[in-house]
Amino acid sequence: MSSQNYNLNSLTGGQPKSKTLPALRKLVGLLPEQRGKLILAFVTMVIYAILSMVPPVLIGFTINKVLLHKAAATSLDIFGWHVLQGSGYGLVLTVCACLLVIYLVNLAAVYLRTIFMGGFGQHLLFTLRNAIFNKLQELPVAFFARNKAGDLISRINNDTDKLNQFFSQSLMQFVSSIFILTGAGIALVWLNWRLGLATLAPAALMWIYTKLLSPWVKKKNAVALKATGAMSAEIQESLGNFKVVVAFNRRDYFRQRFDAANKHNYSSAIKAGIANNIFTPVYGLLASMGQMIVLLYGVYLVSTGHLEVGFLVSFILYVSYFYDPLRQLAALWASFQVAIAGWDRISQILSLESDLVTLPVTAAASGNGISGNGSTVVLEFKDVSFRYDGSKDVLRHNSFHMEKGKTYALVGPTGGGKTTTASLIARLYDPTEGVVLLNGRDIRTYTPRERAQKIGFILQEPFLFTGTVRDNILYGNEEYKDYTNEQLEEALHRAGLETLLARFDEGLDTKVLAAGDSISLGQKQLIAFIRAVLRNPELLILDEATANIDTVTEKMLEDILRRLPATTTRVIIAHRLNTIENADEIFFVNSGDITRAGSLDQAVNMLLEGKRVS
Ligand SMILES: Nc1ncnc2c1ncn2[C@@H]1O[C@H](COP(=O)(O)OP(=O)(O)OP(=O)(O)O)[C@@H](O)[C@H]1O
């Protein structure tokens, strides 16, 4: 039984959980092959940041030298280092030439960065979508019973795209802004620590403001993404059931539901939008305060002889080098919060593990595989109880066995637990208590592939894929994969299935649409039947598999079932009595119990009286 909580929406209750840095590290870890490019992009950013720090100090020293120390202006020395040669205006020209070189190198660095990062976002998007989709293929039925397909689709499409937007458009700007402002901050303190610290004071306020508000911004974004997922689920539900909607004239009902979901999505998107813009104006104000401080305190320091005027110019330049990227960060921070909220929703899926793991044979239960009368036992329930997540017991302490080659029927009232019993036999779920043995071995020790080979399950609502009858018959069947149509028809003939194929106008090439109605429900059941029988399973489960089939075709199916190898065990769930009259044994399934009913008459009595025979 599922010990894992598969309900994604109850995992965090919409609350964000990822910490920024670990989340980033995990994301980058998804793309090991991109690491080299990321490092190169990182190096270009460091070069850009370092070179960007040079012009203000060069300009400051030049102004001081040329305007304040005219007589000695034959060379430029910075902190005792002889940097440039030249006199008077010639020195200014030389400095300008140096600045031009720096600007050009920086230009090249930005281009290189763009090249290295080009496609990173798309690559991430591609990898994430693959990773989620593959994870979905691994998860058990219980996961899909707990989550709406529309919400899952929204996670694959919409949430991954939020990450892509951040990574392709904002990440590099984000990181380079951090580099530049760090460099400018160091330069400010280095030039004059008093003025530097005073200028940086508003940034400390910004940091506190950001720290306090970030969780709120992230939460608003998480709610908005969840609302988009809910809207997508609403669309999926109404499109998936459009016939019922039309037949019951419930268009208004779905319209209202969609309207409510759309309104919620709209209002939460507006709230997220407001939250995302909360930083920018305040950052702008604090940046202006930084400039005011330079003006007030800087002019004072110059007038009292504690600072040279050239450095005041350097300061003014560095202040904008510091606060401009910070202002940019304010805008980028919001897109970062959206991306992290998207990542939270994605990583919820990625971190799930199927609890239907394959156990090692040695650790698991086993039986002798022989019944009291000496027949081979193919399936055994040992004290099995089962309940779906959070609901009452559907089965309680049931023990029984099924022998090789026999036909068993499961009967009982609607909702009695027949499909649940069949699902446990096919290990779509694990029992809450007890154990299911297949060929005397704990069913959990078989790999999914082995299980699928041994057990054929024809579901109550057969699901078909878009393609042809051939594609659907061969789904998951490696053995006949490379057969030509003629060879496959031959194989169907051998299995006695060719009469069923005749029910399709274009035979194996008949088109099938998963969502549409290109074929009838009965034809769908025929395809599911052929698909299961062709695999030649040891155990074949038919869950109401003939409910939509005419009596002539049903007779054909019975014929085919009879011609199955003598070793095939059949488990038939049916409401129609004629379907089960040939069963060797009948089980009555109701109110948590699976009881041997003995004869068909006895089973009918139990069904009519609604009571059990113990
Ligand atoms: N995925 C699920 N989650 C929670 N409860 C479920 C789930 N599937 C079935 N149930 C409940 O388990 C009980 C048994 O259902 P089950 O489908 O096994 O009955 P059944 O005998 O096959 O009915 P029917 O003849 O209508 O097919 C019912 O009360 C049903 O509501």
Strand content: 5-15%
Number of helices: 22
The CATH C-level name of the largest domain is Alpha Beta
Total E-strand runs: 14
Q: What percent of residues adopt helix (DSSP H or I)? A: 55-70%
Q: What's the story with the biggest beta sheet? A: 6 strands, mixed
The CATH architecture category of the largest domain equals: 3-Layer(aba) Sandwich
* Overall body shape: elongated
Number of domains: 3
Q: Output the CATH topology of the largest domain.
A: Rossmann fold
Strand order of the largest sheet: 8-11-12-5-13-14
Let me know the average pLDDT: 82
Q: Mind explaining what this structure looks like?
A:
- It contains 22 helices and 14 strands.
- The chain is α/β, with parallel strands linked by helices.
- It folds into three domains: 31-118; 119-350, ABC transporter transmembrane region fold (Up-down Bundle); 361-609, Rossmann fold (3-Layer(aba) Sandwich).
- The strands form four sheets. A six-stranded mixed β-sheet has the order 8-11-12-5-13-14, with helices on both faces.
- α3 (35-52) runs antiparallel to α5 (89-117), α3 (35-52) packs parallel to α8 and α12 (279-303) packs antiparallel against α13.
- The mean pLDDT is 82.
- The protein binds adenosine-5'-triphosphate.
- Adenosine-5'-triphosphate binds at residues 145, 388, 391, 394, 412, 414-420.
